[in-house]
Design brief:
lipid metabolism; 3-stranded mixed sheet; PLipase_A2_dom_sf; 134 residues; phospholipase A2 activity; lipid degradation
Length: 134
Amino acid sequence: MGTKWCGTGNAAENPSDLGPLKNLDACCRDHDLCPDDLEPGQSRHNITNDTPFTMSHCDCNEAFRACLKAEGSGAAKEVGIAFFSTGLFQCYRLAPPTHACTKWAGMLTQACQEYKFGTSGELRWQVFDMAAFE
């Protein structure tokens, strides 16, 4: 694809090593280097990542989404769809308690696109599906 950071793993020798699609690769690199990742089997904030994929803090995923949209190429859109629209990946964040999912979608599996949050109660760490890439 012309990147060293996008997709499973990376082929970069160091953080400044980018492939021919430099802007796209920079988006993927920054996401890969998210400081709040939960690797498969790892736990933090009473959340255990029981998926085979790395789970990032939702802020890192939203920064990744914004970077891909700003990059704007067809390749960036492909990466965005593969990451955000398949329904395979989740993120975690501190939020009001969720009460229900009000909208579902997903290419490979159904993922919640919109949540209904409670209005009372303390914030708590929770896992969320990600909205599709548009």
